[in-house]
Amino acid sequence: MLDAMATAKVGDDVFQEDPTVQKLENLAAEKTGKEAAVFVPSGTMGNLISVLSHCGRGDEILLGNKSHISLYEVGGVSALGGVHPRTLPNNNDGTISIEILEKGIRHSDIHSPPTRLICLENTHNLCQGSPIHPEYMMSVWNLAKKYGLKIHLDGARIFNAAVALKMPVSKLTEKVDSVMFCLSKGLSAPVGSLVCGSSEFIDKARKARKMVGGGMRQAGYLAAAGIISLVNLVDRLQEDHENAKMLATQISQIEGIELDKSKIKTNIIFFKLTGLDGEAFLQQLEKKQIKILMTDPDAGMFRAVLHREVSKEQVGTVIESFKSILA
């Protein structure tokens, strides 16, 4: 990957003159079954410019109450786009019930913002990294078509979903108008995400990218890493899933940890810790050079994410470390 970055052919991407960025964008569009794509520095920017391209000021989007856009993107769609987010309850598998979605759609009323867009997430981070099945996406698409709405998919880990469900990414993005996916998570590139959609949509998104400061010049050095990710590092995501299941199975047997291992479908594990202060637990882990995230200190909830740089042998070390700390 470093060799590809160092030897990349580059140009000015703001003027769409960087051949390596163009190659990455074409590859991303092909993988997702869309007409075009645009390279962005981050997934947050990718989601933001997608919403800005679908919606105008005063429009409303429907999204889950546990979604990344709602919780972890600094309210950008509101602050920068004047777009009103209407949050609806996520199910444990990351979906939103079709009945609740339909009830959330505004009807023409002088008092209400018009509903323009449904935002979904696959895999769903806060719902145990659950992959969303194409049958559900079809149901949402039928609903959106009925009411003239668009669908944006936060697919930061869409390749994890595709590997877990044993199907091409395009099958999971077939019934959405736009999709963002990250290169810098399980796909292991140092930076970058892609937004994919129709050619007309991507023209709007490219201009929105420029407006929010995402236009990059010789970005091919970064895009080269993304090409390696998409060509060489997708199939190996299964290793991360297997390591996550191994870790979940073993630590679920430790007294003081509450974890439903049946919910582990990809590379993300959430668990609850009882009987030990969360900060003290993190400090003990860091002494052993193990880093995880405490997502809810009050509830004692933690998240562990498996990736390319955590081997099966290291997972074994983590398991033994958990056992020794909680003994």
Molecular structure report:
This is Aromatic amino acid beta-eliminating lyase/threonine aldolase domain-containing protein. Pfam families: Beta_elim_lyase. Keywords: Lyase, Pyridoxal phosphate. Its cofactor is pyridoxal 5'-phosphate. It comes from marine metagenome. The chain is α/β, with parallel strands linked by helices and 327 residues long. The protein folds into 2 domains: 2-232, 3-Layer(aba) Sandwich (Aspartate Aminotransferase, domain 2); 237-326, Aspartate Aminotransferase, domain 1. Helices cover 43% and strands 17% of the residues. The protein contains 14 helices and 11 strands. It has helices at residues 2-6, 19-32, 43-54, 68-71, 76-79, 98-104, 134-147, 158-165, 169-173, 199-211, 220-232, 237-251, 278-287, 312-326, and strands at 36-40, 60-64, 84-88, 115-121, 150-154, 178-182, 193-197, 257-258, 268-273, 293-296, 301-305. The strands form 2 sheets. Strands 1-7-6-5-4-2-3 form a 7-stranded mixed β-sheet, sandwiched between helices. A 4-stranded antiparallel β-sheet has the order 8-9-11-10, covered by helices on one side. A hairpin with a 4-residue loop joins strand 10 (293-296) and strand 11. Helix 2 runs parallel beside helix 11 and helix 12 (237-251) runs parallel beside helix 14 (312-326). The chain is globular, with a radius of gyration of 20 Å. The N and C termini lie far apart (42 Å).
